[in-house]
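User: For my dataset I need records formatted as: sequence, then structure tokens, nothing else. Please produce one.
Assistant:
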Amino acid sequence: MKLVVISHACVTPQNQEFFQRISEVAGWDVTIILPRQWKTDFNDRYAVHKLPGFKGEIIPVGVHLKGRVPLHFYHFGLFRAIRQARPDILYIHNESYALSTFQVMLYNFMFLRKTIGFYAAQNIVKTYLLPFRLIEKFNFRQADYCFPVTESAAVALRKKGFTGRIAVLPLGVTENHLRAPVRYVAKQPFVIGYVGRLVPEKGIDILLRSLALVKSAGWECRIIGDGRMKEALVRLSRALAIEDKTRFLGYVGHGEVSSHIAGFSVLILPSLTMPNWTEQFGRVIIEALAAGVPVIGTNSGEIPFLIRKLEGGIVIEEGDPQALASAIDRLIADPALAENFASQGQENVRRYFLEPKIAGDFVTELLGVMAAPGN
């Protein structure tokens, strides 16, 4: 069986590992087509690097609008690459309304007629402007299957009219993320950590305001990430008189994040629901619990469901600095509770979110699609 994956995310080598798992689980021949260069939100440019140990083929193709996830589209070399790969199954690692998804769907409709599907994380029912509304409708008609990362994303797909096969396949972590739970909470200082973009919807200003209300002493905050709010957040930390205990570490590469998380006593995800956005998954929660670090998160989007499923931390009301400060004080004052969250959360990550299991589910679902009448 030949699986061809089109994925901008696989420019980061660590994201190729999941598809290597699929090759190992199923014995399939996997080819990944990806951008020759990519650009992040932080103006960093990535060139293609193949993950050591990935046995499939990596085909880089030029793209327009590098870094624009829904808007980027490939040069004509994409079609040559797909044709040469001779796929039995196509998987587009992008949303239903994206231009790159439309490119591949249209080519498959016109020339290949192979089994094809896409990825989904969008958990809000949105009506897009033209031409994206028409693009999504076309892609829905063409796709045989979709792998949303959450149940709410699956519900949104059905509400918008997708009738193909749906299987919820969450984002996962590798064995390399797993560490024995360590009593970071018993150490000084107690390290309060955040990882993500510094943008309004992530609620980092609420985190800073909560730190000014924490009653316990002996803590420090490490903020990993970058974004347009950075300077305003630095000024806010100064105004709150917590500047000397708050470290802005900037952008950290994907492969280095887990080692930073392992140094936290608790991970905070203070996301805020916006009219056109809510937290779609919260993968950093899984990465923290895999490292034996408990979490505190708001009730925005998928965060509360993930924390409760994993039994790895505390859920608070979004936008409430006092509630967040109280939750932090609770963990500082009760190391045994924090240790229990870390241990139970890590065990549940091992049970539900390891990539070999998810890769096996991916393969099982695709075999089901292939066996369905008409394929």
